[in-house]
Amino acid sequence: MAPAPHASGLTETGSSTAASRIRSTPSLPASWGAMMRPSHVCQRPAATLLLSLLLLSPLTVELLPAAAAASAVSAASSRGGPGLSTSFGARAAAARTWRVPQQLLQFRNLAKAVTVLREQYAASREGDAAGVRKAASTVVGAEGTGEGGGETAPLGASGASENDRVGVTAFANVAPQEETDPNAPYTVFEVAKPIERPQGAEECTVTLFTDEPFANTIGNPPTQASYTPDPNCASADWSLAVLSVGVKVKGVQFDRRMVIFFGGFEVSRSITAEPLGTEIHYSFERDVTSYTPMLKTASTVYVILENVVDADYTGIFNVTISLTTYKGTPLTTPPSLLLPFSTTSSSSSSPFILSGASPTTRSASVSLSGLPANVIKAKVELTISMHADDEFYYLYFPNKFYNSLPSSLKPKFKPEGGPFRELELYIDNRFAGAIYPFAPLYTGAFNPLLWSPAVGIGNFGIPSITLDVTPFAGVLSDGQAHEIKVTVGNAKAAAAWYLTGIVHIWVDSGVASTAGPPPTIKVSPSKRKERVKLSESPLIRVLRMVGVRLSIDGKYGTVASRAYTITGTVTTSDGPVTTQVTSSLSVDAAAVVAQGGVVITWWNNVGIKTSVTSTLQTTAAVLATQTDSYTFPLKLKQTSLDSYGSVKFDIDSGYNRKSTLGGTPIGSSASSSSSSSAVTTNRLHNSRKDGFTVYVDSKGVVTGSSTSGSQRFVYKSSLGSGCYSRQIKTRPIEVLQNVDSASC
Fold first, then answer.
1. Does a cis peptide bond (omega within 30 degrees of 0) precede residue 538?
2. In the prediction, which pLDDT does 133 show?
3. Residue 436: how many other CB atoms lie within 10 Å
4. CB distance 488 to 421 below 8 Å
């Protein structure tokens, strides 16, 4: 059987032994994070805590006999380390435990380590069920009083703009489970804003899949279903269209990509939640109203979820998908036409995979033909996710630092290239926009226990970003075919960037044709600066110290920025309209080593600000101004707690956006509620704080661990949806606090 790719883009290799499948000390593999993620075999170990491997003592894992396990349990009991229950400790003593000697730099065949994680965690739940099974669906009311005992309100988010997919609705409509049943299914969710349904509107639902199994799907064509719009709603205007997805999985399984296409259009990309032995359920929804022109046409729905099931990987994903549409006037004017940016054929659709050392292989293009002659506005929505060697690119060394290492000390996994990536968009080989991407932390990142029951930001809906290319509207109306191309810059050769897009076109119904000259483009390449400042000299002398914590302080990282302005004019039924797009992008990524390597802090902060202004030339009147600001903060901190190898790991992540719109956007209909001179503002703040600690005794035996997380989500809008906020606190499989509110 062929190996299966994970969310990483790499494949599973190697075979497990009985010893690697035994139950072991709770949370052990997770304590060393993604160094033990099997989805990357020997690649990902260096990719995640790679800096630690060079700056701190190298680590490896080996199994000890039962006698050593008993000693470990005894040590844990006397020390009081978290993560060991009395009942589980007795069983662990009869099995084996894990040892973490500080000797070897290379990891060998860790492909089944997470199998042990799930089995040992299931064992701990069997032995200590009390206090573990609090229902993930329990919701505290708006005033924060009382706990829900029946159905819960939806938990989730819909998009904050007419195009960008900025979130999902994840909900848990199940009653709390009895705490005495450790094997009962539990609900996994993503914190986001609920999608508001129009009151009293007639709705139509088309069910596409019901409990569709995805087992050994690796290498198979996408799973298909025929889609035909419900005739009761097909001819009406839609105020809302919602894609609903439900998933069930039980056993051992890893984070997989799930991509849903309607014809050649990707409408959803998510990362599956990881079951920890027990069956899990999760659901999410997506506002797909902006795809109305495509959804009103019959098509084939393709679902890509490449999975493998065997003696070790037992989880089968059962997927239910439906589309519900609501009659009424949409809040914003949907595009007149949608065109796909994906690899399509008569029997399937799939994302482009950008990889390899050549700029040619790290780019994708499509030719757009048959465009309308009266284009007035255009946008390109891009969905991108990083996999394989670039899943953890935000931790990579700058080239200057990596190149300073002698060949004997350079790891086989090459983390050069620095913590900076960018995407560039071209139309007919002319620059049309740029993106510094958002880096989600997948459900297998660092420690799978961090993401259950609440997955990381963007896992159930990889956010898209939309680039306004209206300055090219005149060119796109010339009746010729036009090439749209996207490149990913600075990526590693073994990286895999999964890319799709949707081109949104609006037309001017008041004229048969529009026209305009090529836009004026002012742009320069990203300005990138690498910095290395270390207090130890020479560095090589310090790095030669094998088997002990290296005494090295300093800072190294990368800063990058760019700005561009694109201006174009198109004739319209109202006269010539000039649209100017101005954008600035920045990234500040670095690592700081302090206290002789005891504390290492990484951060990677991305900022994007774009302004689009449309002006009617005949009167010099500004028709509309729209601004979008994004920030993607990410911070990781590793603290050594003692000389034995005990370590604490903290992760702060976020996704923030602010959008303002003043005036009537070009291409908007008079009936649209967005056609107003008033200024509307939408704000989204989504932040998480997660952490885990692993305790190691003087013999290098892991004695326990702990995991915790918290998240704050706030969405404010001056138009329609008002405010929604939610705060949660979690530990593995347990919601400790859950407060949602309609006030902020």
1. yes
2. 32
3. 23
4. yes
Asked if residue 8 belongs to a domain, the reply is no
Using DSSP, state whether 470 is helix, strand or coil: helix
Instruction: Say which residues have a Cβ less than 8 Å from residue 588's Cβ, sequence separation at least 6.
Output: 557, 559, 603, 604, 605
The answer to whether residues 341 and 503 touch, using CB atoms and an 8 Å cutoff, is yes
pLDDT digits (tens, 9 = 90+) for 134-159: 322 322 222 232 223 222 222 233 33
Ordered DSSP codes for 39-94: GGTTTHHHHHSHHHHHHS-----EE--HHHHHHHHHHHHHHT-TT--HHHHHHHHT
Q: Is the bond preceding 65 in cis, omega lying within 30 degrees of 0?
A: no
Cβ atoms within 10 Å of 369's Cβ, excluding its own: 10
Q: Which of 74, 102, 127 is the last residue of a domain?
A: 127
User: 657 - beta bridge partners?
Assistant: 630, 684
Same domain, 121 and 210: no
Distance CA 68, CA 84 (A): 16
Residue 160 domain-assigned? no
Which among 514, 506, 518, 503 is positioned nearest to 666, based on CA atoms? 506
Last-in-domain residue among 95, 127, 159: 127
In a domain, 661, yes or no: yes
Three-class secondary structure of residue 354 per DSSP: strand
**Count of domains forming the chain:** 2
Residue 192 contacts residue 167 (beta carbons within 8 Å): yes
Predicted pLDDT at 718 = 85
* Beta-bridge partner residues of 656: 631, 685
Give the residue with greater pLDDT, 623 vs 92: 623
Arithmetic mean of pLDDT over the chain: 76
According to the model, what pLDDT value does residue 557 have? 87
Residue 54 lies in domain: 19-127
DSSP 8-state class, residue 526:
-
Give the Cα-Cα-Cα angle 705, 190, 300 (nearest 5 degrees): 130
Residues 512 and 705: their CA atoms lie apart, in Å, by 68
Helix runs in 443-569, H state only: 473-476, 539-543
pLDDT tens-digit map of 84-108: 222 222 222 222 222 222 222 222 2
> Is the pTM higher than 0.70?
yes
Q: In terms of Cα–Cα distance, which of 465, 470, 502 is closest to 659?
A: 465
pLDDT score recorded for residue 198: 93
Instruction: Give the mean model confidence (pLDDT) for residues 73-79.
Output: 32
Asked if residue 220 is part of any domain, the answer here is yes
* Euclidean distance between the first and the last CA atom of the chain, given in angstroms as a whole number: 52
